[in-house]
Amino acid sequence: MRNKLIAGNWKxxxxxxxxxxxxxxxxxxxxxxxxxxxxxxxxFPYLVQARDYLSGTSCAWGAQDVSExxxxxxxxxxxxxxxxxxxxxxxxxxHSERRARHGESDERVAAKAWRAxxxxxxxxxxxxxxxxxxxTGQTLAVVYRQLDAxxxxxxxxxxxxxxxxxxxxWAIGTGRSATPEQAQEVHAALRARVAQADxxxxxxxxxxxxxxxxxxNAIELMRLPDVDGALVGGASLVAGDFLGIGQAAASA
Length: 252
Ligand code: PEP
Description:
Blueprint: E1 4-9, H1 19-30, E2 36-41, H2 47-54, E3 59-63, H3 80-85, E4 90-93, H4 96-102, H5 106-118, E5 122-127, H6 131-135, H7 139-159, E6 163-166, H8 180-197, H9 199-204, E7 206-210, H10 215-222, E8 229-232, H11 239-251
Parallel strand pairs: 1-2, 1-8, 2-3, 3-4, 4-5, 5-6, 6-7, 7-8
Helix pairs in contact: 1-2, 1-11, 5-7, 7-8, 10-11
The chain binds phosphoenolpyruvate.
């Protein structure tokens, strides 16, 4: 039985003055939903604040990217040791916005996932196809290519310590979620792909769905057999919506 994880990706949003209201509301709300795991992935400058408000609660915190390098002359990058210094449990790697805007290759995403695990932080590895890739029938080929790079770099032992997130690019921030049928088809295919390498790892692997998840569509998504939670962007900035998605996961 896989636990459900609801992870909030704040993206490049928030403020030192405004964050406490959201963090306090999340800290209070998650206490009422003990069967579900929660995390918020905040901009680097707010990690200390997230730690200060969420320590001792059942909501973990983490970052949205990490360097594949250990330390050294890498201006602007953040090492996994810095994330673990701040108590981060999770880090997103390979979000489509980073793949698209920063040219992150499948191999680089895999290297980041490996580095995160080496530093004791759980990577949430994002995979997903663009609209044109879906419309030309390439969805599974694309997500397999992205997943295979990670499986090759990590091997089954480290893959077992990873969270996967299926995020169709066309559903992110658009208000147009994948249908339950579309989500289940890809989640089941990803799980089957992992099973070809290791059936036990496959059955325990948490695979989150991300892309315009809201309280209104979360119930049907969270009930899908191969969906183990959600990676939530916009709705994670509204405490009631974020917790509402958690409620849907709890009742699924
Ligand atoms: C995301 O940023 O990972 C995401 C899924 O965003 P949204 O929920 O806003 O579509």
